[in-house]
From TrEMBL, chains A, B:
One Gene Ontology MF term: acetate-CoA ligase (ADP-forming) activity
Domain named CoA-binding: residues: 15-110
Protein name per UniProt: CoA-binding protein
Family statement: In the N-terminal section; belongs to the acetate CoA ligase alpha subunit family.
Superkingdom field: Bacteria
Species: Bordetella genomosp. 2
Cross-referenced Pfam families: ATP-grasp_5, CoA_binding_2, Ligase_CoA_2, Succ_CoA_lig
Length: 704, 704
């Protein structure tokens, strides 16, 4: 049978909340990969049925052992498969025949083993689909549902204490994922789910994460990724997390290695895969952690129960220097360290020591050891300031004062509903755990606490998942067959984009000098001439562009020059004629483009024009479609974005008009699946708004 | 008496290696600030004499207590002063009278207490100087010489175990410094010296650090800074550390807050103090740690005994993903992850599991638990590769296998002399300490291990302290009084710089249209005209520049225009005339400048020209004087440096010629202490080399 969406969902839910688990190939040696799930299930107190399968045994660890899959009783919800690779397909087929809806395949020897392994994995995937068995893995460590003591895993992580908690963690890597899970345990944050997806022959990252985030006991989702095929799934996951109000934190490796796309045009060559991934997850409100430490730091902030209503950071320290360091970092990561209101300053002055500075950061010095109320009242005054949305209290050592300090922080926590973190450097071991029990996030380094506060603020500042513009088709211009692959003639591409609302410089095709002169007269001003050929994407490279021609002789000579250049530099090219275009105004150049990403579909790019795009790679991406505010955010991301506001006496330009161009383009691109590539380079921008003066549009069958 | 340099050095050495320590204002309550040094000295086994001074006691903790300073015996090398602020000056005077050469002043209530405190501190400094007593502090935690159990401190750090070790740590912050010292202890790295300099009324950071790095037991120097007055001292310290082959790691807070200089010209406005500090310490081979965690990570790498002969990083992991993450980070921090030589690959293939990738990173998978030789031989093969200069081995958990793994790493350490680090995520507590005892640096996170390896490689790649060019004066041009403050007329500034070897576009001053026309004829090509006035620094802002004039009428009219513009936009300005300058060639623009930094003296700056310098702040700084290689390194730092190599069909320019300009300028600037500011903006650069086409030079008395 093929699984429908809802039966798939049901099967996943049965798998992660099983009332009966079979272990295929179970070993009586509980230290082995195929014995460890039994050990964990028994040790951790799983209350469902545990059903080992192995013809060699009658019983393992007091559990009745079944000789084969066919002998299993009814009602098995998931089977762990720990048999040699060569026997996996038969096992999965038998599980299907026995009505077991899901298999967690530990066995390695598949896609990770070269071409032969990949072929075997494809056969396994097909067999599982035919058999109606959902696959987790192969080559995975399995999963843990800590709420119900389900340990369908041989991960080292399960060897230690594993209390359940509000974090769901899904990982494509077994070893790295186990390390991250162990770090979650070290911090005492509490892992509700741990799932290693392995080779993802069946269930992929996003589907499993979508399943576990629905659990009301889960408050935060965390994922470790190495690759991603299902961009739509990731977007769906991100939106669902937003709807549920549960933050999603992702770490993805391969930030630098991802190369340029093979068939990219010269702007598209910048569209490295990681930049696209990064842009998309930001667009949909996902937090990205650059490594496992930052992931843990973010999880700690997001797992504490309080929301953050803005970007104002209050800092109280025992060290002026630590305060400066944290304020520096706050500025770098987008937080403000606001000046305190006069009323707050008066409150602070009441109990601050004479030499303490009463600003923000507040330096409470070490005196609070003698006068605990100093710390307590300072921090509460800081948090009561309307400009402060989250606070960090920095201290160090204080080995002899843990009880006093924990009591102070408990009282602070009770007297405010804003989040505050404690950064306790070289803390006595008991302190962090006791603070975490109070719902207070604890860090060991000031900059890390600031970064985590910024993540919390960014998450709560994110827009709800709802508002998304729809794709918007534009009528295809006459004379163009939109089903034909290849470069679209400029006149028609221009017309099509104009119909989609994109401001395009008008363009006319002239077959000869006379026609070009007539077109120039029609423009009533200086014109540019450009060679037009379906075989020439980059006109300047063949000497195919002439600018600022403004008399009949020059236009006529220009046409001759362009034709001669094309004949010399692109001898085989089919020449359609010469484009005549009035010179556009605007003192700034941008590059705007659309690329069809294999994972995420149509991606719109904007970048600084001229040499900047090449040397600085100063570009911003978003997945289509998106709204005008998203377009504005793209412009904010450009390092050269300040040019839009006018420098060196140049006038500012209308950012919103540029953002509208980007949004309109994104809606049209999303409705035009055959659009493979589009370069608007340059888009000239002046006080009158943007206008695209060159356009290369390529169509391609998205299925091809 | 005033201390001479050598008697100062002697006094510092007596202070940090005292045979007798007095504690002025000693308390019988050993938990108080003024009792704690006695407790620590007794507890830690200080073998010199301990001499408490307090009229209230005859004896404290079994030590004879002196009623006053005058009663102290001969031979006291240092006194800890822990009396109220109002009594400190009298104590210091009495110490001088009694022949005690140094005082460590714990007392607060000085410079940190506003204007009155600052005045008191100045009086204290003056009194100490008169009395011939070196001051450490006031408002400091004191110091520790752990080798000789000298605990002249009340720092919390001294409450715990404090084994001596190869790191000397000097800190301006007490609280933050204590935290860092505690982190050093947590890692078991070993702190030989801990010194908190406090308000630095006498001994400053650099002088104390210079004293302790001479100790042969010290291998690494670490400093925490909040501010710095003595730039020359820091440079001297950096050079001495290089001579001794001892790395110096500095953390300085205030990266963002430092504002623009008050009297900066428009390029100088970029010369924020932290950028200058950062450039100078890099120039002299100091490593900068951005925060306390990075400092510890670097110290761990630098304290292990092995040098790193290059930037090639070998990575062996138990997780492919961790390998990718580390390779990403390596690329970002300037390490390479080289492909392995064929011989290495063959060696790896012998013992690698069939599915392990044999590249770099080497994925040894988890199989080494069963086959320890897999890990051992893989890592040794990796380290034996000539392209690999340092290696990192990544693993996680392995709680049950600590003995096996420590034995493997010990054998690897014995069989190679290249440095290798272990990154052990969520390590069992015993493991890191055991590896550190083997001389192996250990990290808990992959990216941090990579950053530390990069620091080690950077340190060993640094040039020796020796080679430094000398300052080189150039003859002052006729008609200029170099002692006069203010803006130097362009013709003379140009001549002066030409004499210093700087390629300057020729310039002539014309008083009227006729003279300008004559000068244009003399040029034999198109010219630029520029208004010349000692009151106008930024000529374009008053409409004072016209370009590309190439006929007599245009030149004559141009002079009239400039004079009219100046009269309108700068009505009070004294007009010297109009400069006539042939149009310079060169397709690129740089900005070159000199600023006199109050801490570091003449700083040379180069930046991308045009709008880039304003929007991107794309500039590099170095302290003058420096050599041509340093100039090349400055160009390498520019983000837009790629423009120098030619983009979009532009020719490459001669980087060395630009670097020579920078070096020559630096040598001249270093020899010209009255040079307050110099802007060469723009310097045009073409295939023929650089030429400065505009010059604003300001002289000022450096003592004023």
């Amino acid at each position: 049978m093929n699984l429908t969406d809802s039966s798939r969902t049901d099967a996943i839910q049965r798998m992660i909340h099983p009332r009966a688990i079979a272990v295929i190939g179970a070993s009586a040696d509980l230290s082995k990969v195929n014995g460890r799930p039994l050990k964990h299930l028994l040790d951790k107190g799983y209350t469902g049925r545990i059903l080992p399968v192995n013809p060699k045994y009658r019983e393992i660890a007091g559990l009745a052992c079944y000789p084969d899959i066919a002998s299993l009783p009814d009602g098995v919800d998931v089977a762990v498969v720990a048999v040699p690779a060569s026997e996996v397909i038969a096992s999965v087929e038998a599980l299907g025949a026995r009505g077991v809806p899901a298999a967690v395949v530990f066995s390695s020897g598949f896609g990770e083993m070269g071409a032969a392994g990949r072929a075997l994995e494809q056969r396994l995937a097909a067999a599982a689909q035919r058999a109606g068995v959902l696959l987790c893995g192969p080559n995975c460590l399995g999963f843990i549902n800590a709420f119900e003591n389900v340990y369908a895993t041989f991960s080292q992580y399960a060897d230690g204490e594993t209390g359940a908690g509000p974090i769901a963690f899904v990982t494509q890597s077994g070893a790295f994922g186990t390390a991250i899970a162990a770090l979650v345990r070290q911090r005492g944050l509490g892992l509700g789910y741990f799932i290693n997806t392995g080779n993802e022959a069946g269930l992929a990252f996003t589907e499993l994460m979508l399943a576990v985030i629905e659990d009301p006991r889960i408050r935060v989702a965390a994922g470790y990724l190495e690759g991603l095929a299902d961009g739509d799934g990731l977007v769906r996951l991100a939106r669902r997390c937003r709807e549920l109000g549960k933050p999603l934190v992702l770490t993805k490796v391969g930030r630098m290695a991802a190369g340029a796309r093979a068939a990219a045009s010269h702007t598209g060559a910048l569209a490295v895969q990681d930049a696209v991934f990064d842009a998309v997850i930001r667009q949909y409100g996902v937090l990205r952690a650059r490594n496992e430490e930052q992931m843990l730091d973010m999880l700690e902030a997001l797992a504490q129960p309080r929301a953050c209503a803005g970007f104002g950071l209050g800092i109280a320290t025992q060290s002026g220097g630590a305060g400066v360091m944290m304020a520096d970092r706050a500025e770098e990561v987008g937080l403000t360290v606001p000046a305190l209101e006069a009323a707050t300053q008066r409150r602070l002055a009441e109990f601050m020591p004479a030499f303490g500075a009463a600003g923000n950061p507040v330096d409470v010095t070490g005196q609070f050891v003698a006068r605990p109320e100093l710390l307590r009242e300072s921090v509460i005054a800081l948090l009561d300031d309307p400009q402060v949305h989250v606070a960090i209290v920095w201290l160090q050592l204080m080995t002899a004062h843990v009880d006093t300090l924990v009591a102070i922080f408990a009282e602070i926590q009770a007297r405010t509903d804003k989040p505050f973190f404690v950064c306790w450097v070289a803390a006595p071991p008991a302190a962090p755990q006791r603070l975490r029990e109070l719902g207070i996030a604890v860090y060991g380094a000031g900059e890390r606490a600031v970064e985590a506060a910024a993540a919390l603020a960014r998450y709560h500042a994110g827009r709800p998942a709802a508002a998304q513009p729809t794709a918007a088709a534009a009528p295809c211009p006459p004379g163009l067959d939109p089903r034909r692959d290849g470069m679209v003639p400029s006149v028609q591409a221009t017309a099509w984009l104009q119909a989609a609302g994109i401001p395009m410089a008008p363009v006319a095709l002239a077959r000869d000098g006379d026609a070009a002169v007539a077109a120039w007269r029609g423009c009533g001003r200086a014109v540019a001439l450009k060679i037009e050929s379906p075989d020439i994407a980059h006109k300047t490279e063949v000497g195919g562009v002439l600018l600022k021609l403004d008399d009949a002789a020059a236009v006529r000579a220009g046409v001759a020059t362009l034709l001669a250049n094309a004949a010399r530099h692109a001898p085989g090219a089919r020449i359609a004629g010469v484009l005549v275009q009035p010179m556009a105004e605007g003192h700034l150049e941008l590059v705007v483009g659309v690329q069809r990403d294999p994972v995420f579909g149509a991606m719109v790019m904007v970048g600084s024009g001229g040499v900047l795009v090449e040397v600085l790679k100063d570009v911003a991406f978003r997945r289509a479609p998106f709204d005008v505010d998203t377009g504005l955010a793209m412009l904010d991301e450009l390092r050269m974005g300040a040019l839009l506001d006018g420098v060196r006496g140049q006038p500012a330009v209308d950012r919103r008009a540029v953002a509208r161009l980007l949004s309109d383009l994104s809606r049209w691109a999303a409705a035009t699946p055959r659009l493979a590539e589009l370069d608007l380079n340059p888009v000239r921008v002046g006080p009158a708004g943007p206008v695209a003066v060159d356009c290369v549009m390529v169509l391609r069958d998205p299925q091809a």
